[in-house]
Amino acid sequence: MEAMWTRYLPATKYLKEDLLPRIWEVRRVFSDFSFPIVSPDLKNDSRFLDKTAGAGALLDQGVYALTWADLALNGAKVSDTVVLHANTKCVPQRPGDIDDINTIILANANATAIVSTSMTLPGSSKPAFYVRLGAKKAAPA
Known about the structure:
Helix content is about 25%, strand content about 25%. It is an alpha+beta fold. Strands 1-4-3-2 form a four-stranded mixed sheet, with helices on one face. Strand 3 and strand 4 (about 110-120) form a beta hairpin.
């Protein structure tokens, strides 16, 4: 539920009402939400490595990356979007087959989204639209 609140944050309103109209129809989305939660000093009984507590990059981080991709696909109906590819690599050298690196490719009639997450690797520091539009921050103050 927490990630679904993302849809109602000021930054999301800014994306939908200011940025998306300026860049017009979105045809391709890259959405990465990765940061190294799992490090060598993290104990094996951590919540981030406990499947019964919902551990894994897809649940902990992927829902955010998928939400941003969905928002950027110009409001395409969920039924119009299909998963073309999904791949998961587990956290290395840890018990329990906890997903670490996830790559998901979504598509609809007009656009494609590539979504990735990782709990052991850092992600991109700025989305491409920040660079393209010269944005200084995620939302107006």
